[in-house]
């Protein structure tokens, strides 16, 4: 079908290469406009200093530059996207709007409303798979049901990927770029952060790379250490993981490109033991996106409904425990250093996400949804599906979650994964002087020794909020309501 004029709506796919919706629009239309909307329905709920808004703002500027270099332009609006898109489509007189699939319940509802408004106005709506390799019903069990356990899902995913190599093929843009609608004259400047109602965060200070160039740079760097990923990824003091999650969240990298590069590397005998482990992490991302799509009830309730019967701690004392966890003053150094990393940078290492989540739920007895919401507000890479999957894993209420009786010991985790205390020292300088053995549980260190280092517990660093062994017993009792069905 040939369309005269169309509009591509960029959302979590902020790049001008290997882009499904842009590719299809360019191939099918004579003239293609591009738009990004700072959605007031989302922006209004965010704190006025938000690293993600900074990240998007910088990435949008790069996307606009790139589209202009290709001969096109990016219209940038600050509005309610659900009404702004049909309005813009009418103003531009386009025949169709193209976008990539979004699997979050609110986004599905928004897109349905946009599609309906366009249809009512005799315009077309097209959307495409782009942010995952396999979506919705593409990977099913032999009986045709969605998977709920990761390992068989991963095996089926890998089998399908090998059988259908086209799933990794790039959606080229440049050869069709002549169909991009030229910039309006004069082109209005992009909105500044201040015009959007935001102040700069510390993103630039942290030197977090943004946009397509930032994603490419991080991936290039990661490829030089991917071989060791299987080992290095578990130690938060090491530069083990890729730090690509924010780029995957906002689509400044192409997942197809990452997987294609990795598969090529492995086929050439490269990537060591690390490459397949990293690929398995990307498959977790597809898995959780599929779980959210198939089970939208996980947003707000347990994947396994029996777990909604658990009675969590509530009231002022629980509120104080929660505040201490958020602010990194639990008295458990690894937990507190991890929360400091989150609060100061918007990133938290995967091992530490597991440790802090488990601590909140199983040492403090706090509802996992409170922790999930805190992460959602502070993580640069916040993604509803992966965040919810991670929290439901830690609370044992999710699909393929850790069993409820498996309770991380925060001291053992600290000794095992930050043995020399390098990560703890980075974020808790007040404990710097403690020895490698003592840094994991300062309250066990003789007071005289602490005094030698000028550390007074309760003044320089908190005493532990709870005793892990006692908390463990309470948790097992708390979870007794679900024992029968687990
Ligand atoms: P790498 O180790 O380099 O992994 C590469 C990519 O694989 C990641 O960027 C991510 O896209 C994907 N990935 C890795 N681990 C997972 C996983 N367990 N589940 C799903 N995808 C994964 N990830 C998010 O992207 N957004 C979130 O909001 C989020 N919240 C989490 C909450 C909890 C409680 C837990 C336990 C995990 C959460 N994760 C989340 C998963 C994981 O911690 C991060 O993806 C990872 O730490 C990001 O760092 P990286 O890009 O350096 O990871």
Q: Could you characterize the architecture of this molecule?
A:
The protein is 47% helix and 7% strand. The chain is α/β, with parallel strands linked by helices. It has a 5-stranded parallel sheet with strand order 3-2-1-4-5, with helices on both faces. The radius of gyration is 24 Å and the shape is globular. 43% of the residues are buried. The model has no long low-confidence stretch (mean pLDDT 97). Bound molecules: flavin-adenine dinucleotide. Flavin-adenine dinucleotide is lined by residues 233, 241-245, 248-249, 281-282, 284-285, 288, 350, 353-354, 357, 375, 379, 381-383, 386-387, 389-391, 394.
| Tally of individual helices | 21
Largest sheet composition: 5 strands, parallel
Model regions low in confidence, pLDDT < 50 over at least 5 residues? none
Overall SS class: alpha/beta
Written as H for each helix and E for each strand, in order along the chain, the element string is EHEHHEHEHEHHHHHHHHHHHHHHHH
**Termini, distance in Å?**
52 Å
Mean pLDDT: 97
- Helix percent reads 40-55%
Shape: globular
Strand portion, in percent?
5-15%
Count the E strands: 5
**Cofactors and ligands:** flavin-adenine dinucleotide
